[in-house]
């Protein structure tokens, strides 16, 4: 990524990209090394970023992402804006289940978590706001993959399907069948694919044009899982968010939810 | 702010700063004008930002803040990290009250909202994640101003105190008395200071060193306000978050909460 041909803009963005969940606070030397920049250049860029508020310096002299960058980023329509519309419905879903509630979107071949509501008693999960996971192993990822079109599915199945537990589906043929079932049933169940004690039930969120723009899920301990009881709640929340985004359900047989892709 | 002496880094940051809640999507021409840049320069910077993922281009050709910037910004300790720790307590507070629940920090002379939980039936409020408000008119702002030190208070009271309703406190002497009462009682009540139908009850969140790092509030319709009943719930949530941040309460008389500043 870095190299002599990098523009000033690219160097500045490489400084921001040096931060990650595993190292959210960095010294100037660490920043220069991670961004592959000479120390004086790093110093100059960090000074500009700090003055603007994109970085903040703590008492120990380490830098971290600043509040102003967070404020600007809060304008991302696929981040905070979608989350704002979804939040009341996620709240209701949380109250109905008292389990982990997730909202996620797809970015390339990964799922990105926009929101996680979890009570202190909910099952421990690996999700985290801003975190990325592969599509095939999570409930939200299965929904987003199933509705992402055949080209995406072929590309995804051609790559390696990472395994997290003995239950993770790593066989492309089996994954394709699961995706067809997700489209048919209108929801996805990921059973112990990420951790061997949790299960997630997910449903698609549609935008005004009917395309799937996000997914909602509930993650529950597998021991206490009442999957059939969770499905209607998750689908209801997803449809509520879809309606708020301008989606209108296609007329279907009375009493039967439509199962269109 | 802009000028011929701007560095490449400053120009790039000016492009990001062109976005605001009132105009979250901008054409290249609008971006160039708002960032005070020649069109070719704006084009080059926008291309670099888009390739990195800091901006995304929609079907109509307009640019908005991208998911990758949102992901990086999610590492801001005063943004998402604090929010992650606070969320279970905010959830509990929401469930106990079913009203708007807020988490906010101070940045300069303003309060910045990090989180807002609100059911669909809660009173309409002007707060928004990432939004800024003056300190004297909101419950969270009163808490953060009261615990921000005398220098901040003098500076704040020397400026103009903006009025939003006939109930907004704009008299510096009265504001100082309110701040002393906030420190004494351990909570703040902002009564119809932002809108004439809502009231907020706020309490301080302390960090490991005992300093006030954030504030929690509940906003309720003034008609149905049961302020005395809300105070313990808000204080409990704020203390729960403080404990999770490493704060330990000073030993006080048994059964009486300490009211130290």
UniProtKB/TrEMBL annotation, chains A, B:
PROSITE patterns: HTH_ICLR, ICLR_ED
Pfam family, one: IclR_C
Annotated Gene3D superfamilies: 3.30.450.40, Winged helix-like DNA-binding domain superfamily/Winged helix DNA-binding domain (1.10.10.10)
Alphabetical UniProt keywords: DNA-binding, Transcription, Transcription regulation
Keyword DNA-binding: yes
Domain HTH iclR-type: 6-67
UniProt cross-references to SUPFAM superfamilies, sorted A to Z: GAF domain-like (SSF55781), Winged helix' DNA-binding domain (SSF46785)
Domain IclR-ED, residue spans: 68-247
UniProt KW Hydrolase keyword: no
PANTHER family registered for this protein in UniProt: HELIX-TURN-HELIX TRANSCRIPTIONAL REGULATOR, ICLR FAMILY, HTH-TYPE TRANSCRIPTIONAL REPRESSOR ALLR
Identification of the protein by name: IclR family transcriptional regulator
Origin species: Streptacidiphilus monticola
């Amino acid at each position: 990524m870095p190299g002599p041909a990098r523009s000033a803009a690219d160097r500045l963005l490489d400084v921001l990209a040096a931060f990650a969940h595993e190292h959210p606070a960095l010294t100037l030397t660490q920043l220069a090394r991670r961004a592959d920049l000479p120390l004086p250049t790093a110093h100059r860029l960090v000074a500009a970023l700090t003055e603007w508020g994109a970085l903040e310096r703590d008492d120990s002299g380490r830098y971290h992402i600043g509040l102003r960058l967070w404020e600007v980023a809060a304008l991302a329509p696929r981040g905070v804006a979608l989350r704002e519309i979804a939040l009341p419905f996620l709240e209701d879903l949380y109250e109905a289940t008292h389990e982990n509630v997730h909202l996620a979107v797809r970015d390339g071949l990964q799922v990105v978590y926009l929101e996680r509501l979890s009570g202190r008693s909910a099952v421990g999960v690996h999700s985290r706001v801003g975190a990325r996971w592969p599509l095939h192993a999570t409930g939200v990822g299965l929904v987003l993959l199933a509705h992402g079109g055949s080209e995406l599915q072929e590309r995804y199945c051609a790559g390696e399907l990472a395994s997290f537990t003995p239950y993770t589906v790593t066989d492309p043929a089996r994954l394709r069948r699961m995706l067809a079932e997700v489209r048919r049933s209108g929801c996805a169940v990921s059973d112990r694919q990420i951790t061997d004690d949790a299960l997630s039930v997910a449903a698609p969120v549609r935008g005004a044009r009917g395309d799937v723009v996000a997914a909602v899920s509930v993650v529950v301990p597998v021991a206490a899982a009442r999957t059939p009881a969770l499905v209607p709640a998750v689908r209801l929340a997803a449809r509520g968010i879809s309606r708020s985004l301008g989606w209108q359900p296609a007329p279907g047989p009375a009493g039967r939810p439509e199962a269109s892709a």
